[in-house]
Structure formats: C-alpha cells, structure tokens
Write a structure and sequence with these properties.
2 domains; 5% strand; single chain
Length: 252
C-alpha cells in the first residue's frame, strides 16, 4: 500500500525505504511517486521476454535463409517462397506488432504517433515481402492443398484484409465520423484490427511450424532436434507477440 506524507524540502532526509509517495509542500507543490517494486519487476521481466523473442525470431529467419540457400539454381522460386514468407510473417509482422508494446526496446521512448508510424512502416515491408513470395509461389512447378498451404493462404488473406481497418484508424475516420463519436468508433475499429492481426499472425506461425515438419526440411537439418527447437522458438515468440493484444481484448 502506498504511503503518502506531506513535508517541506528538509524532510527529504527523513525519507525511508518503502515510502512510495512523498509530497513536498512549499511555493511549488512537488509530488514524487516511487512505482511499486512488483510492478517494476514485472516490466523488467516483460522486457526480457520481448528481447528473447527477438533473438528467437532472428534464429528462425537465419535458419530459413540457410535452408533456402540449399536449393539449386533451378529452384530459385522455391527458395524465394520459403525465405520471403518467413521474413514477412516471422520477422516484419511480429516486430510491427511489438512496436505498440512499451516494453519493446525500440518503442520505449517513442510517442504514440511514432509507434504507429513504425508499425505501419514494418507492415508495409511485410506486405512487400508477401508480394514477392506470392509471385514466387506462382512460378513454382508444384502446388498442393495441404495444412501448410491452407494456413499460408489464410494468413495472406487476413494480412491484406487488415489493411482496411489499419488505414481507417490512421486518419480516414475523420472524413466519415462525427467528432463526438470519434473516440468510440476508433476504439471499435482498433479492436477489429487487433483481432484480425492476431489471427493472421497465429495462422502464419502455424504455417511456419508445418513447414518445419515437411520431409524436405527434416531431411535437410543435420540433427532432427533442430526442427523441434525451431518449433519451440516459434511457439514462444508467437505467445509473447500476441500477449498484449489479447490482454487489451480482455481475452487474457
């Protein structure tokens, strides 16, 4: 429980550990607030989780880079399909979502507007990679309806659909909604944007995991456990990325 007491500047010498709020009474009223230690520890732990998630993302992307380089020259479309979709869905997209997390290192000192710009920029990078990866799929000589391909198509469709509420929130509502209803409408559209974004990223992670279970990848890795470790990495950073949006949606 926070302890609050009023004093002049001389009583600062009497400050004791555990006093979370000190109020200085004088010509100018100054209030110092010491955040609860438990809350600070939770923030430190959350920042550590996010840092670890970034490391696992990088490991997953580099693994797919080395795997895509194993394709022969004649299979360049297959290599692009693997690498570009991985970069889009497992690097740019989760990094964009984490831009709105205050515990994320890159977003710690940003304003809300700067975080939104950062989020939009990374999502556009993700969409660019998706376009290249989709073209590569069209150029491949083999395509089958599998769990992997279905999850990939779902993720792509949701990513494109989510552009609509994303750009609506970023300014187009001013043209359509009265000012007195603006705040409520922005909140509702933002919730829709979050739901679609979470579903899109979960579908993309499912697509990534099923790709790690394919025979070609399992035969490529020198140790079968590498596939299992990559799956664990993906599950971990997927949970870390979607945790805050789910909390805001009151699901967690």
């Amino acid at each position: 429980m926070a302890l609050s007491r009023g004093c002049n500047l001389e009583c600062v010498d009497d400050y004791q550990a555990g006093d979370e709020v000190i109020e200085f009474v004088g010509p100018v009223k100054i209030i110092l607030v010491d955040p609860p230690k438990d809350a600070y520890r939770r923030r430190v732990l959350g920042a550590a989780w996010i840092t670890l998630a970034h490391m696992f993302m990088g490991a997953s992307v580099m693994t797919m880079l080395y795997y895509s380089l194993s394709y022969r020259t004649a299979s360049i479309p297959n290599a692009l399909h693997v690498f570009m979709f991985t970069v889009a869905f497992q690097l740019f997209m989760p990094s964009a979502i984490l831009c709105h997390n205050k515990l994320n290192g890159a977003a710690t000192h940003m304003t809300i507007a700067d975080r939104t710009f950062h989020h939009t920029f990374l999502q556009l990078c993700s969409l660019g990679c998706l376009v290249v990866g989709f073209i590569a799929v069209l150029l491949t000589d083999y395509f089958a309806i599998t769990v992997h391909s279905v999850l990939g198509m779902i993720a792509c469709v949701l990513a494109v659909i989510n552009i609509i509420p994303g750009f609506i929130v970023n300014g187009m509502l001013k043209l359509w909604v009265d000012e007195d209803r603006m705040e409520y409408t922005v909140f509702q559209v933002t919730q829709v944007h979050k739901v679609i974004g979470v579903l899109c990223f979960v579908a993309s992670s499912g697509c990534f995991i099923t790709g790690l279970l394919t025979d070609t990848f399992v035969l490529w890795v020198p140790i079968r456990d590498m596939s299992t470790i990559s799956i664990i990495f993906c599950c971990y950073y997927t949970f870390v990325v979607i945790y805050k949006p789910l909390r805001h949606l009151q699901i967690l």
